[in-house]
Specification:
The complex is a heterodimer. Chain A contains 21 helices and nine strands. In chain A, the strands form three sheets. A four-stranded mixed beta sheet of chain A has the order 6-7-8-9. A three-stranded mixed beta sheet of chain A has the order 1-3-2. Chain B is α/β, with parallel strands linked by helices. In chain B, strands 10-9-8-11-12-13 form a six-stranded mixed beta sheet, with helices on both faces. A two-stranded antiparallel ribbon of chain B has the order 2-5. A two-stranded antiparallel sheet of chain B has the order 6-7. In chain B, strand 8, helix 9 and strand 9 form a beta-alpha-beta unit. In chain B, helix 9 runs parallel beside helix 15 and helix 12 packs across helix 14. Chain B is flat, with a radius of gyration of 38 Å. The C terminus of chain B is likely disordered. Classes of the chains: A alpha/beta, B alpha/beta. Chains A and B meet through helix 1, strand 1, helix 2, helix 3 and helix 7 of A and strand 1, helix 1, strand 3, strand 4 and strand 5 of B.
Chain lengths: 518, 438
């Protein structure tokens, strides 16, 4: 791979003015591709760029950005809210939406200027696309080839169910499944799902169910007085493959009263959740990567005279808007901006690779001064997620630049305490706590199904392992447990247990309100 | 490798199905909000869409998540200016990683959910399940007028209906098809011939051109510029159309005994009636008649907001209404609706006159006459009304008229929340009436 090839300076810019047409789009795309592949060595899925109107963009929002999705009221709810915000000018529309599929679909809006189209193309069609194709999480967890077919199948399947079993019954299952969506993920890869064959497998499952029945719930005759098959806790747990943190998976496989189509609906939601799981873990990196790519691609094009001064100013204007990071005491502050943090880290890596200080050499001996920043970056994009990326690459220089500090809020103390600031002693601790802030395993409550009372009333038992004494939000937890209990068909108990001491802190018990499987 | 696809012509509104599901889901709250909103509008303004704010009950999407209060939290924040390790700082007032235990407890911490209903959605929800009473159809079927509307083209018709554009289009295509020579083509030939004649050279060429011109001339005569087969006329068809206009009379007692509260109740009822009528009729006039011991026709502002004193003589209002009907709203052309709101007081001597006016003059011309007796808020609930409460003079008087096939409805209301049910009861579709009433 050649780095920083010197392509000759182009005399005339590729386009002038704000208007775009297909011819310009093609020319600019080709130029961007040149830079992306030759200079940056990006490796992407084939691109499919779709021009849509702002109204269609709003539509796309309402189905989590997917081009086709089954129908559900919650998507309508989000749409209703987004529409109000947009119409009142409280929120602008995203410039682009990009879908992790092969070919990679990027939406661009017809209202954009030519420069915005170029920016979006560089950002989505190359930056995000490269990240989707090369990051290990996406490789492990998502099936870009199959997703669109699968969504098509899921949409049709849900529609068929609605026709057959009525809107209300389908909605109840989907409501419950959505409530548990975040707990419908396998965190550790068993095998990569092959979405393309899901439709076939659904039919196989059905025919299999027709020929067999669930042995698990059969009353097994035992010797009188002898121990039942299910009384032994360990044995029972092994049979049910417990503990299980993928609640939707467990219900799909083991809930006694659900019907086939209801299990399949759980499966649809679970696949969707699994598909988005890598995105939740790579916000900073994914946006950082895309932002770094669009900035560098367009910068090079500007240096070579391929875009005009005016266009470059427009790029800079949008770019700085995107990476704006207000400080904590600014009324606009709403947490760390993933674009800002991601982009700053990528730039910082570039700086360390090409122009390191003594400090950098000490902190990053592997690549400080290596000179080849793009290789370092590509390696980082491929092999890390937000948490590990920050833990590995956050430099003291950047901590100083953002003036990061670490606050500890202990509910037992009257005031919050500053634990670390951007100084020699604070760097490591800040880096560690910041990384933890992006660790999905740390952000999300650790909830597992631990046991089922098989000989008794089939009570399902869950545990929440409480960290730092932070309990679940009570009202919502009860609502979700209600959904869970409806799916399970029997009582559900969840205990909140302190992870450190093992002390039992709280217990929720919920009985089914309506049994979905009945 | 890449493709660009133009999706702009794809159908928009892909989210419509989801929106309908959402509205269905949030129906109860939306209905309540719609009715609250309508109370704040003017009668004729109610016919529109608008912002709706609903509480998030029933449209929540719960997930397991950690409580925002209690425990030990570590937060990394940008923008340190003066802090050093070990500093202690007060918690921010709410959110922001601090604890916001207060907000959530009383439910006030929940966000309101705000969105926009289209006009259609608004009205549909507002008027769900309502129907004009059967008797309206009697009138509709009788009074019809003919309406003409375009129905394509025909080859025959009166000259006034000649469609020039279509005719010329046919003519042009015929001329092109039959190769009728164009005027400038012939003009060019003529000029050339003239030139040759003047110079006198090239006789052969001249003869050739003359022959060609002759041919063209003959052809242009054989193929006319406009031929009878080109001619097209606009065709019209007539369809019988029911008279689609209605007038609504709002009659209200404004004497001293009518409180603001009672007027507000009346206004709400008029509003509903207006809205309801506009759904069924293309054009609805509203006439406001207020009365004390004398009656007068006024505008909406005066009707609701100006104070009057004097006794109560209901018959004056009925006379005024008949006067207006005679002058402007002939029952042959208009569907007449009337809604009378009163606290039930009437001069004792007037009752027989009122009765006679209503039964002999008003009811025969009305599609529907609704009498709403409004009471003071906080009076005995409507259930006891029917049995033990003393009936008002007017109520007793009107009651004698009620019977099969008489387009008269009577209801009592004392509280805002009863208006809609009462309205529903009056206009509910068959069968739906009973469950809602009382």
């Amino acid at each position: 791979m050649t780095m920083l090839t010197d392509t000759p300076v182009v005399a005339a810019p590729l386009y002038e003015g704000a208007d775009w047409d297909y011819d310009k789009l093609r020319r600019v795309y080709d130029a961007i591709e040149q830079v992306a592949v030759k200079d940056l060595g990006l490796n992407t899925y084939a691109n499919q760029i779709e021009v849509i109107t702002s109204e269609q963009m709003l539509d796309a929002y309402s189905s989590i950005g997917m081009p086709l999705l089954y129908k559900h009221w919650s998507f309508g709810k989000h749409f209703a809210r987004d529409e109000v915000l947009y119409r009142k000018g409280l929120r602008g529309l995203a410039y682009e939406i990009v879908i992790n599929s092969n070919p990679c679909i990027s939406y661009i809006m017809e209202e954009n200027t030519m420069t915005m189209q170029a920016l979006v193309t560089a950002h989505a069609a190359f930056g995000h696309n490269h990240f989707f194709k090369n990051n290990y999480l996406f490789q492990q967890w998502t099936d870009a080839d199959g997703i669109l077919d699968y969504l098509e199948f899921a949409k049709g399947y849900v529609a068929k169910c609605e026709e057959r079993y009525g809107h209300a019954r389908v909605e109840r299952v989907l409501d419950a499944a959505h409530a548990l969506m975040n707990h419908g993920v396998h965190r550790y890869p068993r095998r990569r799902s092959d979405l393309r064959n899901e439709e076939r497998r659904e039919q196989e499952r059905r025919s299999h169910e027709e020929t067999t029945f669930n042995d698990l719930w059969r009353t097994v005759p035992t010797k009188p007085g002898g121990p039942s098959l299910f009384t032994d806790r360990d044995r029972r747990r092994a049979l049910l493959e417990l503990p299980e943190e993928n609640i939707l998976y467990f219900l799909e496989k083991k809930a006694p009263r659900l019907q086939g189509w209801q299990r399949e609906l759980l499966r649809v939601v679970r696949h969707l959740s699994q598909y988005f799981y890598p995105q939740r873990q790579t916000k900073v990196m994914n946006e950082g990567c895309a932002t770094w790519c669009h900035y560098n691609i367009l910068r090079r094009m500007h240096e070579r005279g391929m875009i005009t001064e005016g266009a470059w100013l427009e790029v800079l204007h949008s770019h700085t808007n995107v990476i704006f990071q207000p400080e904590f005491d600014d009324p606009r502050y709403g947490g760390l901006n993933p674009y800002a943090l991601g982009f700053a880290m990528m730039e910082d890596i570039e700086r360390i690779a090409t122009n390191p200080t003594e400090e950098d050499r000490y902190w990053f001996p592997d690549f400080a001064g290596s000179g080849d920043s793009v290789t370092v970056l590509r390696d980082a994009w491929a092999n890390f997620r937000d948490e590990s990326f920050i833990l590995q690459y956050m430099s003291p220089a950047l901590i100083r630049k953002f003036k990061l500090f670490h606050v500890q809020d202990d509910a037992r103390e009257p005031e919050m305490e500053i634990k670390a600031i951007h100084n020699e002693r604070g760097y490591r601790s800040i880096r560690q706590s910041l990384a933890r802030q992006y660790d999905v395993a740390w952000i999300e409550a650790d909830i597992q199904i631990v046991d089922v009372d098989l000989t008794g009333d089939r009570k399902l038992m869950l545990e929440h392992r409480v960290t730092n004494q932070i309990l679940l939000e009570d009202e919502d937890a009860r609502a979700v447990l209600q959904h869970l209990s409806d799916l399970w068909g029997y009582e559900v108990v969840m205990e909140e247990i302190d992870a450190a001491s093992g002390a039992r802190l709280k217990k929720h018990t919920v009985g089914p309100r309506m049994i979905l499987g009945a | 490798m890449f493709t660009i696809i133009d999706r702009r012509l794809n159908p928009k509104g892909k989210s419509l199905a989801n929106r309908q599901r959402f509205l269905r889901r949030a129906k109860e709250q939306v209905m309540r909000a719609v009715r609250d909103t309508s109370g704040r509008r003017r009668i004729q303004d109610i016919d529109g869409g608008g912002d709706i704010v609903i509480s998030p009950d029933g449209i929540k999407e719960p997930t397991f998540h950690r409580s925002s209060s209690g425990g030990l939290r570590d937060i990394v924040v940008p923008g340190n200016k003066e802090f050093v390790p070990g500093d202690r700082i007060p918690r921010p007032p709410s959110g922001g990683g601090g604890r916001g235990s207060e907000g959530a407890e009383d439910g006030g911490g929940e966000d309101e959910f705000r969105f926009v209903l289209s006009r259609e959605e608004f009205i549909d929800l507002f008027l769900e399940d309502l129907e004009l009473p059967d008797l309206a159809k009697r009138k509709l079927a009788k009074s019809e007028s003919l309406a003409w509307h375009r129905a394509g083209y025909s080859v025959s018709g009166s000259p006034a209906n000649l469609n020039l554009v279509r005719t010329m289009r046919n003519s042009l295509s015929r001329r092109i098809a039959l190769k009728r020579p164009k005027p400038d083509e012939m003009l060019r030939l003529r000029e050339e011939i003239e030139e040759l004649e003047k110079s006198g050279r090239d006789a052969a060429r001249l003869a050739e051109l003359r022959e060609e011109l002759g041919l063209l001339l003959r052809r242009s005569q054989r193929i006319p510029y406009i031929d009878p087969v080109d001619v097209r006329y606009n065709r019209f068809e007539s369809t019988p159309r029911p008279v689609a206009q209605a007038v609504m009379f709002c009659l209200m007692d404004v004497s001293g005994s009518m409180t603001e509260h009672m007027k507000d109740l009346a206004k709400r009822f008029y509003m509903l009636l207006y809205l309801f009528l506009t759904r069924r009729y293309k054009h609805v006039d509203v006439v406001f008649i207020r009365h004390t011991h004398r009656a007068q026709e006024v505008d909406e502002e005066t009707f609701f907001y100006s104070a009057e004193t004097g006794g109560t003589v209901v018959s004056t209002a009925l006379e005024e209404m008949m006067r207006v009907v005679k002058e402007r709203y002939s029952p042959d052309e208009w569907n007449i609706y009337a809604a009378q709101a009163s606290d039930g007081d009437n001069a004792l001597s007037d009752n027989s006159r009122t009765l006679a006016l209503l039964s002999d003059m008003i009811l025969p011309v009305c599609q529907y006459y609704a009498y709403i007796e409004v009471g003071q808020d906080g009076m005995a609930p409507p259930i006891t009304f029917s049995s033990s409460m003393r009936e008002s003079d007017l109520w007793r008087t009107y009651k004698t008229l009620q019977g099969e096939g008489v387009p008269l409805a009577m209801k009592r209301v004392t509280h805002r929340r009863e208006i809609y049910p009462v309205f529903r009861e009056l206009f509910a579709r068959d069968g739906a009436a009973q469950e809602v009433g009382a």
